[in-house]
Amino acid sequence: MTETTRDRPAATAQIGVTGLAVMGRNLARNLARHGFRVAVHNRSPERTRSLVAEHGHEGTFVPSESMADFVASLTRPRAVIVMVKAGGPTDAVIDELVPLLEPGDIVVDCGNAHFADTQRREAALRAHGLHFVGTGVSGGEEGALRGPSIMPGGSAEAYRTLGPILESIAARVDDVPCCVHIGPGGAGHFVKMVHNGIEYADMQLIAEAYDLLRERLGATPAEIGDIFADWNTGDLESFLIEITADVLRHVDARTGRPFVDVVLDQAGQKGTGRWTVQSALDLGVPITAIAEATFARSLSGHPGQRAAAARAYRDAAGTAPGGAVDRDAFVEDVRRALYASKIVAYAQGFDQIRAGSEEYGWGINLAALATIWRGGCIIRARFLNRIREAYEADPDLPTLLVAPYFVPRVAESVASWRRVVGYAAQAGVPAPAFASSLAYVDGLRRDRLPAALIQGLRDNFGAHTYRRVDAEGSFHTRWSGDRTEIPA
């Protein structure tokens, strides 16, 4: 380890956190509250001083203003949690840390890094004899403080040191910590990426349900908030449904209007949804609900195009079906459509995780993953218990949609689902996540898809060949010649 001529602090801290913005600050406090001596460091020393001044009574913090002193304050094997912005800033911190560390030490990246970056960093640090642990942390700033869902990757050896620490600060459900070793390399950040993709889909589906209820029923946001609160007492119970009711009932103090009506309708994104879709394309996994949710956010962020289209297509707006509205029936239809669509989003996410695990040799346990998502994380929901049970019963389940628990629940929702998507199309209410989720189920259940025609077209224009239902091998038809078929 690099030394200077002056004395270094005694090595007493069990774990360190560098990067003390909201998430890093709260994670350090969580660790201290659980009895760990926590080394803390920030590029701007003022944040370190502020943490100790405001929260020093919560536990034992060992503050340092230099990276060298920070590392020196840690007992071996040193475990350093990095909580800085993903990308270049993370690389900069790692570059500063590595010369100060010794073989066997552990660097833990708890930011929202792209898993490919984590793979690269893990290999680079392994060459120095260091462990690099890409770790997904979900739950926002409150979760970081009170108990998040934690998804660590990296080596099994590193987890033997880190596991007891991380499991102690994680959320707990049925006295089981919401933390498990996901797998080697970039497995932890890959799983967190897909978690965020599912989160995108979940929020888009909730937003579409709200929009449909408001358009069809003419209900106020507060009234729709009451509907969501009622849904949260049943099989839709989840963190996102709970906070939807809260947001919809909130009144803007400045104007007295519903809060949701004074918020600009342009949704931001930090990249994890886009990464999820890009990865799914690479893996050949259809995640239509997540993709539509990601594209819906992109569409919301193009106000100029939207304004031009609103002017150009003013006369092309849909017309809602006539006649009296059966309020209770429509609310129930939307509830069922939302539940079934959410199952599709989770099913597609778990399919992608399985494909990634196979592609990279991670050996991810899907049942264990469902277990740690039951608490702490943003997508925690009642039916994650059912997902866990499904994968425990059959780890090779072809898709969550054919699990015995979910089949009857999706099947009984299909009629409502079709009515809701049909109404949306007629009324001109965009519902891309609802519609694509239904189309996905229809595609899965069909005995025969029109892909046969696509194969014929590909062979016609590019001699890409095709396979037959009644013979082995690949074939090509001489479309520009005598149209005879020849083996490829």
Describe this structure in words.
The strands form three sheets. Strands 3-2-1-4-5-6-7 form a seven-stranded mixed beta sheet, with helices on both faces. Strands 10-11-12 form a three-stranded antiparallel beta sheet. A two-stranded antiparallel ribbon has the order 8-9. The protein is of the alpha/beta class. It contains 21 helices and twelve strands.
State the gist of this model.
The protein is of the alpha/beta class. The N terminus is likely disordered.
Low-confidence segments: 1-5
Count of beta strands: 12
Write down the Rg.
26 Å
Structural class: alpha/beta
What's the pLDDT, averaged over the residues? 95
- Quote the beta fraction: 5-15%
Distance between the termini: 62 Å
Number of helices, where a helix is a run of at least 4 consecutive DSSP H or I residues: 21
Helix content: 40-55%
Main sheet overview: 7 strands, mixed
- From the spread of the alpha carbons, the general shape counts as globular
Question: Numbering strands along the chain, what is their spatial order in the largest sheet?
Answer: 3-2-1-4-5-6-7
